[in-house]
Design a protein that fits this description.
With about 675 residues, the protein is α/β, with parallel strands linked by helices. The chain contains 23 helices and 24 strands.
Length: about 675
Amino acid sequence: MFVRELELALSELKGAGPALLGRLARLGVYNAADLLLLPPRDYEDRAQKRPLAAFAQGPVNCFVRVVAHDWFGFGRMRTLKVWVEDEAGSRAALVCFNRPFLEQSLTLESRLRLFGRFEYRFGELQSSAFDAERVDEGDFTPEGLLPVYPLTAGLSQTSIRRLISLALARWGSVDDELPPALRERRSLIRKAEALRLLHKPTALSDIAAARKALSYEELFYLQIMVGRRSLARRQDRLTRTKADESLALALKERLPFSLTADQEAALADIAADMAGPWPMARLLQGDVGSGKTLVAFMAALYAVAAGGQAAIIAPTELLARQHADNAARLLEPLGVRLAFLSGNVADSARKPLLKALAAGDIDLVIGTHALFSDDVTYKALRFVVVDEQHRFGVLQRLAMGAKGSRPDMLMMSATPIPRTLALTVYGDLSVSTIKTMPAGRKPVVTHLAKEGNEAKVYEFVRRELAAGRRAYFVYPLVERSDKLELKDAEAMYERLRQDVYSEFKGGLIHARLAEADKRATMRAFADGSLSYVVATSVVEVGVDVPQATCMVIEHAERFGLAALHQLRGRVGRSGLQSYCFLVWSEKLGDEGKRRVMAMKESNDGFVIAEEDLRMRGPGEITGTDQAGALRLTFADPLRDAELLEEARADALALLEEDPGLVGSEGSIVRAVLERASPFNERTAATG
C-alpha cells in the first residue's frame, strides 16, 4: 500500500483517544499517512549522560528528583518553577512558561529523566526548554538520537513519539511510490526505510538519507504536475506567422531613450513565442524600475498590429490607472484605442465600454480583476499581461485566459525569483529576466536609523525637500492600535504636517481612502503640488514619481524583506541620487536584524530574493494570500537545488516517454500528485 492511501483512523492506535486526536488535528495530523509523514523539526543527541554541573559542555541529560515547586508573576503571567536536584546534589530550576499543568505531572519527590539546555540567569541555573519524563526506577541508558516534533498545547514529545512508533509498527511497510529505475539512478532508499530512519535514526547519516529520499519524491511529483501543465498547453498546435512589429517599432522611434539590452532580449523572446506553434506562457521578471511595463506595452502592440485585442491586468486600481496614464501618453499617438476598466467605473460608462470591447472597437484595455468579470467579453483577445502576477490566484489567471481563444499570456513580477524557486513554482513557464537598469540610474543609498534618532533623518529629508525633491514616509498601521505600540500613518501625518514640515505641503494615502482621494493625492504628489506623502504599504507597487528621492520606512522590522525592497524601489527612478532610511525599534529581533542588514548590504533584487527565500522558507515564499501557494514538507528549493534539478530532469524525461504518467509500477498515485502540486485543485478553489 502507498503511504498516501493510508487514510486510516488514528483511533485504531492504542491510547489515541478523542482528546489526543484533537491535539494532533491542530498539527494537521488527521490520519495514519499524516502521522507517518510528520517531519521532526530537529533531533536531540541523548547518547551521552551529562549532569547539571556540566551544563556548559552541552545539553543536560541525567536523572533528577523534584525537590520544590515555586511560582512567580501574577494573573495570566503567573509561571511555575520546578526545582530539581541530580544524583550529584546539583540544583537547577525548570521554568514552565505556559505549562502550569506540569505541576500535576512533575510532583514533589518524583524521579525524572531530564534533557535540556541550561544557563545561569538571575543568579540561578535554569532552563525553559527542557524535556522531563517521569521514571520510577531503572538505570540510565543512552537513548541515542531522538526526533523533536512540533507540538501544541497538551501534546508532549513522549506521547507523539509513542504514537509514531505504533504507527510505524502497524503501517510502516509501505510500498515505493517512485519507479525502481529512478530510485536506483539517484541512489535513494526505499520509502518504508526512509520513514523508519526519519523517525528512528541511529546516526546523522540516517537522517540525511531519509530526507534526501522524501525530498526528491516531493520535488519529482511537483515537477510532474508542472510538466503536465506545460504539455496541456501544447496539445493543440496553432498556425501563426511572424509577429507584426510595425507598431512596436513606431513606439521605439518615439522614445527619447534606447531600450536596454535585457529589454531587447525579452522582446525578442516574446516575439518568438507569439510566432510559435502554441500559446505563449512566459514570466517576465525584473527588479523594480527595470522597464518591464514598457516591454509589456510593446509586446501588446504585436497583438494589436495583427488585428487582435490586448489586456493588461494589475492588482490595484492605483497601479492600473498609472499603467493606463502611461499607455495613453505613449500609445494613443500611434492610433491605439485604449480603455480603462475597474470595479469603480460607473455603470453609465461601463456599459458602452463593454459594448465596445465586445465589438472590437477597443484595442487595449487596462484594469483590475474586473477585466475577467462574467459580463466582460472580447471580440478577439489575443494577448494578456498579468502584472504583479503573484498577487492573483490561479483561478483568476485562468479566468483571464479563458476570455480569449487561447491568448498569449505574459506574467510579470517585480519581485525577482531565485532560479530554484522559478523551477519549482513556475517551471512550466518560459522566463525572461531584465537585470540591467535604464541608463543614468544611481543605486539607492540605504541608511539604518535607530528609533529615537528620527530627528536626523527628518533633517536630511528637509534638505531634499528644500531642493525641490519629494519624499515618502511609510508606516505599518493606518491608525493607532491599543495592542501595538507602533506609529501609525494618520497620527504621523498630523505630526509631520504641524510640527516637522510645516513649511511644506504633504498628503496622506492608505487603503481605506476612496479611490478618487488616492488618485488625487498621488497626482498632486507626482506634479509637485505635494512635497511628501505619508502612507502605508499601499505605495509598495506601481507608484512612479521620478522626483521622489527619499523613502523613510519607520518600524522597518515590521515589514517583510520583499516589501522593504519594493518600497525602496519607489525612489531612485531618475538620475537623481536617492536615499532609503530604515528606522528600527529596540524590539528588533534576530530575523528583523537580518532583514534590515540585507537591505543595507545590497540593492540587487535577486540577492534580496535569495535571502528572503532563506528566511521565510519554501512553504511561504509565494505568499499566503495566493491560491495554490507552494507547500513543501521535506524539500527546500535552496538547500536542495541540485536535487531539484535532478528531479526536474527525471520528471520531464518520464513525461516525454509516457505522457499518460504510467511507469513501471503502474499509475503514479494521484493523491501524492495532489499533495506535491503547488497548484492543486483543493488550494486553487480558494482563489
